[in-house]
Amino acid sequence: MSIFMSSVYIPTGGWMLTEKKVFYAMPFMPVTGEPRIWDSNNEEHERYINLCRKIYSSKYKNSNSYYYLFNEDLLDTFESFFNWTDARTVIPIGSTHPLVYHFADYISSAIGCSTLDVINKVEKGVFTLDNNKTLPEGKILLVDDIITSGSAIVSAIQTLLKTGKYQLEDIDILCIGKTERDLNVWDNNKVIANLT
């Protein structure tokens, strides 16, 4: 598998929007755990959908499937990202689901840096910082589990930028997967092209 890239746009003053790259391993995930399309004769499609199910099971059912995702299924994919980032601290985006925290711990252990749980979720798309914790120096890696619209990532980045401690270039972003609302037809060329 390969690391995929998408963009979110961060308001940076007035009407200005600045593009920020978001990296993730699983593209075109169904919006729910179950796909609307299914090709039982296609082994790559079946493998892909099973990975999506593991991700959703880990997020919403608090299963231990995440262990296999990180240590087997997606291991090579994330290792290619580890060689690219120079982040010194991993910060999970606050969530009511444990998967993002497991992901943050896995990433920080793999790249040999610390995890700091400092972003708290107030409500959907609204975050605050834990004032009892000191923000780290240097580059940070913001992690989330599944990105859909990107609004949570934008809000979390804005929360960090408001402190004045970071510039946009100080923040890298990594997610497990990205949903695709318009994936109605299975297309091996679109989805499987980089899944080797």
Provide a concise account of the structure shown.
With 196 residues, the chain is of the alpha/beta class. The protein has one domain: Rossmann fold (3-Layer(aba) Sandwich), CATH 3.40.50. The chain has helices at residues 43-60, 65-73, 75-82, 99-111, 151-161, 188-191; strands at 4-11, 17-29, 89-92, 114-115, 119-123, 126-129, 140-147, 171-179.
Write up what this structure looks like.
The protein is α/β, with parallel strands linked by helices and 196 residues long. The chain has a single domain (4-191), classed as 3-Layer(aba) Sandwich (Rossmann fold). It is built from 6 helices and 8 strands. It has helices at 43-60, 65-73, 75-82, 99-111, 151-161, 188-191, and strands at residues 4-11, 17-29, 89-92, 114-115, 119-123, 126-129, 140-147, 171-179. The strands form 2 sheets. Strands 1-2-8-7-3-4 form a 6-stranded mixed β-sheet. Strand 5 (119-123) and strand 6 (126-129) form a beta hairpin.
Determine the mean pLDDT: 80
Encode the helix/strand succession as letters: EEHHHEHEEEEHEH
The whole-angstrom Rg is 17 Å
Shape, principal axes of CA atoms: globular
**How much helicity do the residues have?**
25-40%
Treating each run of at least 4 consecutive H or I residues as one helix, how many helices? 6
Q: How is the CATH topology named?
A: Rossmann fold
